[in-house]
Amino acid sequence: MTKALQALLTGMFVTFILDFFIFLGLLKNYIDFYEIKVYYNVLFVDHQNIFLFMFFSIIIGFSLIYVKNLKISALFISLLFIISLSTLYPSVGYALGEKMFMQKNVTLNDKKNFFVGDIYYEGREIITFYDYDLKKTILLKKKDLIR
Predict the structure, then answer these.
(1) Which residue spans within the chain are E strands per DSSP?
(2) Which residues contact 67 (CB under 8 A, 6 or more apart)?
(3) Residue 72's closest CA among 60, 84, 82?
(4) C-alpha radius of gyration, the chain, whole number
(5) Mean pLDDT of all residues in the chain?
(6) How many CB atoms lie within 10 A of CB 44?
(7) DSSP state of 144
(8) DSSP assignment letter at 138
(9) Residue 50 in contact with residue 16, Cβ under 8 Å?
(10) Selection from 15, 103, 13 nearest residue 55 by Cα
(11) Does residue 128 register a pLDDT over 70?
(12) Closest by alpha carbon to 1, among 88, 51, 87, 65?
């Protein structure tokens, strides 16, 4: 039981580090590109998928603790680090950010207007939106929108 708990905690720690670099790449190459005002911790917490986090925590932890062949474990962890660090390259970080956050050709309504464009980022209270008619990025308050 102790070894299984150690494997889970080790996996959680390593997965947390991998996630840190993924979200850092998203912040530097997508969020900063569109000048979206969001704090890193909010970005990290709001978009963390607990199921993926636990899946990778279990796989990584058990591969580090239970696999006897050190070369296989090191290769596996190195591959995961390369993948997570790849988001620091602008094209990869931007593409992942676009896949995660952008919603294209969306129509939003408030009490007076309707907006047609792309959602760059939907935060807790504010939506960063590119309006096709205005040809600029605007901020919309979620509470004012009619869905």
Answers:
(1) 103-109, 114-122, 126-131, 136-141
(2) 73
(3) 60
(4) 19
(5) 95
(6) 17
(7) G
(8) E
(9) no
(10) 15
(11) yes
(12) 65
Cβ atoms 66, 10 nearer than 8 A: no
CA distance 28 to 7: 32
- Residue 90, amino acid: P
**What does the block give as tokens for 40?**
């890193």
pLDDT, tens only, 35-61:
999 999 999 999 999 999 999 999 999
Q: 3-state class of 35 per DSSP?
A: coil
**First-to-last C-alpha distance (Å) of the chain:** 49
Name the one residue in this structure whose structure tokens are 């040809």.
Answer: 135
Question: In 66-93, which positions are buried (b, 16+ CB within 10 angstroms) versus exposed (e)?
Answer: eeeeeeebeeeeeebeeebeebeeeeeb
The pTM assigned to this predicted structure is 0.91
pLDDT for 61-79, tens place per residue? Answer: 999 999 989 999 999 999 9
Per the CB < 8 A criterion, the answer to whether 117 and 82 are in contact is: no
CB 61 within 8 A of CB 122: no
Q: 108: which strand partners? A: 115
